[in-house]
Design goal:
mainly alpha, Arc Repressor Mutant, subunit A, 2 domains, three-stranded antiparallel β-sheet, 6 strands, 9% strand
Length: 224
């Protein structure tokens, strides 16, 4: 994992939400030089996207934007995806220099809530009532991505409902971030416990119990 490329990918503002998730996943998997070796299954697990949508995004990032260098024909035959991230490089081609303006971005992605600047210590303050359960804020998306909840609107919606239930119209960015981390941890623990409870009871019998069960089923018939 290269923190340099994660920072570059996150600060890159000229991509759609779907493209940013794939770009962040590639940055998470990259080495210090930006090289990535992964599989479609791994990218699907990290982004919750379909194979066709991820394949389409990879093509756009590589061909139209030159954000990544990708040889799809070669890597597909090998069953892996090999590429190199070019975000932030001086010699990369300007983003969307040869592509058409994006017109298919959902309207709700354009209504990101802007934090208010605090007057005292420079801390950012957010109006809780402006948060929408249908819109995952940009500052929250990276936290959810690293916690394994990328693009999961239902988890974000439950978090927003909890915040609004507190009755505090304004909260600091740091406080909200801490609460989001705690909420994601709770969601992950709940999912693990639920899966554990649904597992059948496969506890092993003690040797004494196993012997008694075997003897109870044994047919003591000594007739020839």
């Amino acid at each position: 994992m290269s923190s340099k490329f994660i920072e570059r990918a996150w600060s890159h503002s000229c991509v759609t939400m779907e493209e940013k998730l794939v770009l962040l996943a590639l940055a998470e998997l990259s080495d210090r030089s930006g090289a990535v070796i992964t599989t479609m299954d791994e990218l699907q697990a990290m982004t919750n996207g379909s194979e066709s949508s991820i394949d389409h995004v990879l093509g756009k990032l590589a061909l139209e934007q030159a954000i990544i260098s990708l040889s799809k024909a070669q890597t597909r035959k090998q069953g892996s995806i090999k590429c190199k991230i070019n975000v932030g490089n001086q010699h990369s081609i300007p983003v969307y220099a040869t592509s058409e303006p994006i017109a298919k971005v959902p309207q709700f992605h354009k209504t990101q809530v802007k934090p208010l600047q605090g007057s005292d210590s420079g801390t950012k303050t957010i109006n809780i009532m402006d948060l929408s359960p249908k819109v995952i804020e940009a500052w929250a998306e990276v936290i959810m991505f690293r916690s394994g909840f990328a693009n999961q609107t239902s988890v974000w919606a439950s978090f927003v409902d909890k915040l609004k239930a507190l009755g505090q119209p304004l909260m600091s960015q740091d406080d909200i971030n801490s609460r989001l981390h705690a909420h994601l941890h709770s969601e992950k623990s709940y999912g693990q416990n639920k899966g554990f409870k649904n597992k059948p009871n496969t506890s092993k019998m003690s040797p004494n119990q196993a012997f008694k069960k075997k003897m109870a089923n044994f047919n003591f018939d000594f007739d020839d």
